Prior knowledge:
CATH class of the largest domain in chain A: Alpha Beta
Oligomer: homodimer
Radius of gyration of chain A: 20 Å
Number of strands of chain A: 11
Distance between the termini of chain A: 47 Å
Largest sheet of chain A: 7 strands, parallel
CATH topology of the largest domain in chain A: Alpha/beta knot
Number of helices of chain A: 9
Structural class of chain A: alpha/beta
CATH superfamily of the largest domain in chain A: SPOUT methyltransferase, trefoil knot domain
Strand order of the largest sheet of chain A: 7-6-5-10-8-11-9
Order of helices and strands of chain A: EHEHEHEHEHEHEHEEEHEH
Largest interface: A-B, 38 and 38 residues
Amino acid sequence: xxxxxxxxxxxxxxxxxxxxxxxxxxxxxxxxxxxxxxxxxxxxxxxxxxxxxxxxxxxxxxxxxxxxxxxxxxxxxxxxxxxxxxxxxxxxxxxxxxxxxxxxxxxxxxxxxxxxxxxxxxxxxxxxxxxxxxxxxxxxxxxxxxxxxxxxxxxxxxxxxxxxxxxxxxxxxxxxxxxxxxxxxxxxxxxxxxxxxxxxxxxxxxxxxxxxxxxxxxxxxxxxxxxxxxxxxxxxxxxxxxxxxxxxx
Amino acid sequence: xxxxxxxxxxxxxxxxxxxxxxxxxxxxxxxxxxxxxxxxxxxxxxxxxxxxxxxxxxxxxxxxxxxxxxxxxxxxxxxxxxxxxxxxxxxxxxxxxxxxxxxxxxxxxxxxxxxxxxxxxxxxxxxxxxxxxxxxxxxxxxxxxxxxxxxxxxxxxxxxxxxxxxxxxxxxxxxxxxxxxxxxxxxxxxxxxxxxxxxxxxxxxxxxxxxxxxxxxxxxxxxxxxxxxxxxxxxxxxxxxxxxxxxxx
Lengths: 249, 249
């Protein structure tokens, strides 16, 4: 399996400190000026028995074509996906929540959605293996570490996945701007739910929309109806948080 | 004044169709395969008397270093900023709302926030001229055209701006994760407000926090407290939308 990379001094330090991911190797540019952070990285690597190696800047540029590696790239083990069955089993007898990404292609959006999911206490995310994007370095970076705090499930068939969720007492909610009901009209606090977010332009596939128990929209105050998908996800997820906290208090 | 550029076939077609911005020139790569969209661009340009010109691909690559211009770059007039006094005058005798960006540096976040503002019916955004980023091509692109539907104010001093807003009967709300009150505990429906969003890591400057009438936080359901700033803005703005629509109904 291919390594995942993380890059940039702060990102590497954070990952070393949190210790959630297996490091394979840390590559440091041999013309990086040695500063406090590079020293800290070397120190932390030594403490954890992680190999570090000095390489040419060209090699780092090759690994991070978009640049901004700041002279440090870490090769880490890819995240571990979990099976849907295992997720369902782990969450029996408590309220469980999932976000399903249907064909979302922008890695920044996937990372930001995962970040919001973790803040909102969502238990897992589901990504299709064929359409859209799986977890890559950009998703890792944009998630700001959130990817290590949530179950990630990949599936060959979102239809089968959703059917299995429904059989296991999950309510399926589709975010669809043609829907009649407003997102805040659903009571999210008392059910297992899976929220489907669709691709920015295409929206949710028809075959999935048909399976939804609720279709909800985010109402706008103008005719300009064009939220970024990660912002749309955040709005719905934090309406769930609001309801949950109000119910508790 | 420097031109702003927009690029990509769809973005250029949209801008031509909406006709909200003055075009200076459209540059088309002389080795772009002529397809239906390129033809449409030429047609629309002719109809509006806009000059188009064939240039080398290298010139386009130079104008759009990050690539993805798809052979079409349009040079358009920069957006027109408006003065705070004019904004205040235009919005007397009706509820007015603003978002202030304090040192937000990522152009994608600024664009996404502007997009959410327009969807939520916010009347204007305020950007500092010295810290942070003003409107550039990335902001234009990420805003998905929203930038043309909102008043944009730039200021040399956010402190002075906020003081002037307070004198003119605006309530100043600061999003601060150390705050005690939850964002949904404020009633936004009956006041002029200016919501301050801070930079991702540094948060809102102390000098501005001191001027705030309300400090609010977005409560999390986990200890992972790290929302992307554009997602945080969307959550608060659409709580305002929710309150407003519930009050109307």
